[in-house]
Design brief:
Length: 377
């Protein structure tokens, strides 16, 4: 069937949703498709993704928090945003709509269901997110990042595509991991993500200060902190006589990962996809308030594979972190082994696989979707 080469990608406004959407957008555009991103104001504000690409920005908001009034306001914003997207589809009908989760993706997926446009969902985490759970029954395909994703409804067609990473990360995936032996620098990267960076800022500098002089003098730290915490974190490193660069945001995460020998971070899906692609060992501190505790499920996969070490948020103390780092730095072989095991979890073809599924569905639009089950074209 001849169809217009036009795809809508709908994504929540955090990096965890936006990064895989951008990776797939690049593949689709390279195949000659026109792509429009539907997101919210947070997604619009992320400056280093979807450059020079058409965006449709909504006012949709999550129902979480705010009590009864907040929920009513959120429901109203979803309804009005869905109507806006339907009008958009009336002007130019997309071939396929792809939802990457998060509440800003819901209006576009709802509009697709209402107008009988086939839609695909992608789940980044090891637990199916709320919007994807809500809309899974009507999708042509639910693409999962990991095997045995939790809370997937019965009778939904699924494929394990992996979690797409940006081309820059994928291109660096073969870079060797060098253990910081001898007297050279020990390069550390601290990533808090868009939420929950404060505990890392509270604990990490103090824990590094507890390491012996021989290690402290070798440390070279890059630390992402909340804007309001930057000065105090920088001062903490200076007091400990540890070299550090502290900023609220880093554009070149790929370059930082390339140079890093140890990462301390939350366990967001996109962060883990990049860590596995580049084989960087990590100490993971799952975000305690994450919906459905999905970060704990994400981190458990890494720990089970031997790619890193998990410290629950309630146990993430100065003493616990200092003891773990001291042990790891005494025997750097454990870090090298973790790097190798991280790489076993990588799915470097995820963006190609998901783009191929989307194109195939758009080209064929079959009534019988069983052709897609469990395999990727």
């Amino acid at each position: 069937m001849s169809v217009a080469p036009y795809i809508i990608l709908a994504s929540g406004g955090t990096g965890g949703h936006m990064m895989p959407a951008e990776a797939v957008a690049d593949k689709l555009m390279a195949s000659g498709y026109e792509v429009t991103l539907v997101t919210d104001r947070r997604g619009e504000a992320i400056g280093n993704v979807f450059q020079n690409m058409d965006r449709f920005v909504l006012g949709a908001s999550s129902h979480m928090g705010g009590g009864l009034f907040g929920k009513a306001k959120s429901a109203f914003s979803i309804v009005t945003s869905t109507l806006k997207v339907r009008r958009m589809f009336g002007k130019k009908r997309p071939t396929v709509v792809v939802g990457f989760g998060g509440y800003p993706s819901l209006p576009a997926v709802l509009a697709a269901r209402m107008t009988k446009i086939p839609y695909v969902l992608h789940e980044q985490n090891a637990v199916l997110g709320r919007v994807n759970r809500l809309m899974a029954k009507g999708c042509v395909m639910l693409a999962l990042s990991v095997e045995n994703t939790e809370r997937v409804p019965a009778d939904v067609k699924t494929v394990v595509s992996g979690n797409p990473v940006r081309a820059l990360i994928a291109n660096l995936a073969d870079s060797a991991y060098v253990v910081p032996l001898g007297g050279g620098d020990i390069r550390m990267l601290i990533l808090g993500g868009s939420q929950g960076a404060r505990i890392l800022s509270d604990v990490v500098p103090a824990a590094l200060d507890k390491l012996g002089d021989a290690y402290r003098k070798r440390l070279n730290v890059t630390h992402q902190a909340r804007p309001e915490d930057v000065d105090r974190v920088q001062n903490a490193y200076q007091t400990a006589e540890i070299r550090a660069v502290v900023k609220p945001y880093f554009d070149d995460v790929a370059g930082l990962l390339l140079k890093s020998q140890m990462v301390i971070s939350r366990a967001g899906a996109s962060t883990l996809a990049e860590l596995t692609a580049m084989g960087r060992p990590a100490i993971l501190v799952p975000l305690g308030i994450a919906a459905d505790d999905h970060q704990t499920a994400n981190a458990a996969r890494v720990e089970a594979a031997g790619g890193g070490w998990v410290i629950p948020e309630q146990d993430f103390t100065v003493e616990r972190l200092a003891a773990l780092l001291g042990k790891l730095y005494e025997d750097m072989g454990d870090m090298h082994s973790a790097s190798d095991q991280m790489r076993t979890l990588a799915r470097l073809d995820a963006a190609d696989t998901l783009a191929a599924i989307i194109i195939y569905i758009g080209d064929e639009s079959p009534a019988d979707n069983s052709a897609y089950e469990g395999t990727a074209p």
